[in-house]
Amino acid sequence: MDTRKTIYMDHAATAATDPEVVEAMLPYFAEKFTNPATLYTPGRGNDEVIEAARETIAKVIKADPGEIYFTSGGTESDNWAVKGVALASEKKGRHIITSAIEHHAVLEPCEFLKKRGWDITVLGVSDTGLVDPADVEKAIRNDTVLVSVMHANNEIGTIEPIADIAKITRAKGVIFHCDAVQTIGKIPVDIKALGVDMASASAHKFYGPKGVGFAYIRKGTRVETFNHGGGQEAGRRAGTHNVPGIVGMAKAIELADARLGDGARLTSLAEMLWKGLVNSIPDMLRNSPQGNSLPGFLNIVVEGVEGEAMLLRLDGKGVCVSSGSACTTGSLEPSHVLLAIGLPAEVAHGSVRFTLGRENTEEDVKHVIKEFPKIVAVLRQMSPTYKPDCRKGGLPYAI
Question: pTM, whole model, 2 decimals?
Fold first, then answer.
């Protein structure tokens, strides 16, 4: 792919590794390659590097270094939280609460446990994707051992009232896990102020390397060891440390923290994109809530057109985006998130997610505003379902 001709607007999926991060990682692939668990000097040196990275990450999210555990990414961290707490607390109870818009890395472990006897309560959300803390409180039972609600949704960008939920779970003595994969490195995250017991993060979401992440586990939180086979990570997560990845993640989160101010620009660009599109395309719905979504997020639904068709046509114009109806690779099922906020399946199929990042400019947005309406017009002419005159107002939802 010739990146000079590509406009990348899928940063919620992944981001390019920052050149400064790559530079920081390079020595640890060959020159400083030793296993940090060894006793000789080079190995001890890498162990010190890992601990320095732990301190850097802890400082950014305002945690204690001993509460940071390195993993292979957000999926492992989410699985560890759900399964680890369930196994550690099964004598107390077998009830878990989560929401209908969680990432599959939370929902599928919950389904895994359900098949093995755990009771799972899946809370609904508002039409903007918000979990109501009152619903969490009502759902907690004497046998509830875990509540898992994401910090911000990866498809529509809605930021959840995590601190309010945490006050409830803390008062009830229930462990609270938060999937913070989309927020850490993008908006300010004070883990102590949020009040959660566990949180998940992934480096490649904030311009770090893929294949590395971390789990925040508050001191005193009971969670079963996830990987067995070694004494790494205080005996809680076995496996030789990914030294280059950990170094890169620490550098990436440090850079991301210093650049949080760019969020205002990304929000402005997303608003510019929305205004340009909504003025040119009739019968279109916005799913990302204004004023309470992640910087640079814009999820829309276009009536009468399949999301995959729009995605492929945009790709032909050099624009990379995601479609909600392809939330799982190879799947043609509509997004569970869009269904959860009340969209019918046939409407949810027509979704497109734009997620902007550091390199995006006004010129990028103008290019999309110019090309996307033409794409929609062509696809609607081919659509057997789109009939703009069949009812006034198009979609039966407020824009």
Answer: 0.93
